[in-house]
Each structure stands twice: as structure tokens, then as C-alpha cells.
Amino acid sequence: MQTLELIKEGTRVSVWLNRPQVRNAFNEILISELTDTFAQLSDDPSVRVIVLSGRGTTFCAGADLQWMQKMAGYSYEENYADALKLASLLRTVYECKKPVLARVHGPCFAGGMGLIAACDIVFASTEAEFCLSEVKLGLIPATISPYVIKAMGEQAARRYFLTAERFTAAQAHHIGLIHLLCESTTLDDSINSMVKTLQENAPSALHLGKQLIRDVSGQLVNDSLLKETAKRIATVRASPEAKEGIQSFLEKRKPAWSLNEPQESK
After folding, report:
1. Within 13 A of 134's CA, how many CA atoms are on the CB side?
2. Largest alpha-carbon pair distance within the chain?
3. Domain extents for the chain?
């Protein structure tokens, strides 16, 4: 791959944005490779957790300037098709069947904020900073907006979408954009601890739990929702994974999925 580096350690896969010379900025190749990678990892039964990180000093600076120059000459139809590719990437990350952790160690701007907002759990070092810079360029954060607004809330979005001001990791944590704020020296230890926690949980239940959040969030609590959630738990209770989980609890042993696994890198 031209723009990514993948490291597999047991059931964990680290996906590194690997364009440090341009601060891991998006271009059409990075978008395509990320989309394909997350689609493949989502369906890979040997993968349990994905960690998304950036090489160099920046997590992601948004769009590549050369790519933006090229887009400026596109027709409406070409711009629409191009924007759909980024939208497809974000949806692929958001709907990934595996838990996706984001590791933000430096600046995370524009499209980079959309990328982390599509992840499940976001870690950031205290040195990280954030910015929705689009309006400074006469643009709007359209394709990333569904995920960023979900993550930071409408009130915070009203401010940061319109001001394009930079804000700190502490502010990002306060508004809910990031889940865990860490010193740079403890960032990786905190992520490793979370990976181990997730690896102890049932793989299919993690996937179905993610799907449940997407489907239930924002819904009215009515008879239809009650029936749907009851249907889902009834289906899961009859699954081999749930039977193993309950049996292992009664027998006071670890379930099969949490047994020690051989660690290998490739």
C-alpha cells in the first residue's frame, strides 16, 4: 500500500496513516486504501480490535493541498463523485464490525476529525489539537458532519463549524469528541489496556452491540422499539456465543474467546 502501514499482533491490527511528509493528509489514494482496508478487516474473523493511528507528528491535517487544487477544477459531477468516496470511507469505518480505536497524538484537522468521529473510542494526548477549518477556505464540513455532530453535539458544532478556531485536547474531551485524555507518555499504555479489555469480550456481541447503538440512537421509545429490542436479545440468547458465555460464567471459567492467543506480527 502507498499510504498505509498495517501491523497485526494476534487479534489486534494497527492501521497507520503513513504520509508523514504531508501530515497524513487525505488524497484519493489514502481514501481508497482506507476504505478497502476497513472493509476487509471488518469481515476478517481473525481480527478483534483495530487501532487507527498516524505516523509522524500529525494525526491527520485534513485534505492534501495538491488534491484540493485538482478538485477546484472539477465539474459538479466530478466533485460529487469524489465527495461520495470520502463519505463512503467514513461510513465504512463507522459501520465496521470490529471495535475501532483512534490514537490522536498531534493535530487533527477537518477530515481527520471526521475520521476519528467515525471511530468507537478516541484517545488523545494532551498535546493534540483540533480544528474544523473548512469555512476559512470557503468550504463546509459536509461529508464529515453526521459523525462530528454525533460526537461533539449540535451546540459545540454551531461554534466550531462556524469559527474554524483551533481547540485543545482538553476542550475536545470536555465536549465529548474524545473519550480518554492521556499524557503522551501514557497514551499507548492506555490504548493497550483498552485493547485487552475489548479482547475479553464476545466478538459477535461487540458487532451486534455497535449495530444496536446505531439503530436505537435517537429512536422514540414506543411499542415498535420495545418489540425490536426484545427480538434482538431473544435471538442473541439462542446463539452459540451467548450459550458459551453464560455456561462459562456458571462454571467460573473464562469463555473460549478470551483464552490466551498466540501473538504474531506480520
Report:
1. 18
2. 66
3. 4-198, 202-258
Please name the amino acid found at residue 10.
G
Unique residue bearing C-alpha cell 468521529: 117
Report yes or no on whether pTM surpasses 0.70.
yes
The answer to whether residues 17 and 53 touch, using CB atoms and an 8 Å cutoff, is yes
Residue with the three cell numbers 459531477: 77
Secondary element (H or E) of residue 9 = strand 4-9
The three cell numbers of residue 151 are 460526537
CATH architecture of 4-198: Alpha-Beta Complex (3.90)
C-alpha cell read off for 217: 440512537
CA dihedral 88, 89, 95, 99 (to 10 degrees): 180
Please identify, in words, the CATH class of the domain defined by 202-258: mainly alpha
Structural contact between residues 41 and 98, judged by C-beta atoms closer than 8 angstroms = yes
Q: How far apart are CA 113 and CA 53, in angstroms?
A: 13
CA dist 168 → 44, 113, 119, 218, 256 (Å):
36, 13, 19, 29, 42
Catalytic sites, residue numbers: 134
Q: Could you please report the per-residue DSSP string of 99-168?
A: -EEEEE-S-EETHHHHHHHTSSEEEEETT-EEE--GGGGT---TTTHHHHHHHH-HHHHHHHHHH---EE
pLDDT tens for the 266 residues of the chain, in order: 999 999 999 999 999 999 999 999 999 999 999 999 999 999 999 999 999 999 999 999 999 988 888 888 889 999 999 999 999 999 999 999 999 999 999 999 999 999 999 999 999 999 999 999 999 999 999 999 999 999 999 999 999 999 999 999 999 999 999 999 999 999 999 999 999 999 999 999 999 999 999 999 989 999 999 999 999 999 999 999 999 999 999 999 999 998 544 434 33
Location of C-alpha cell 477544477: 73
Q: How many other β-carbons are positioned within 10 Å of the β-carbon of residue 180?
A: 16
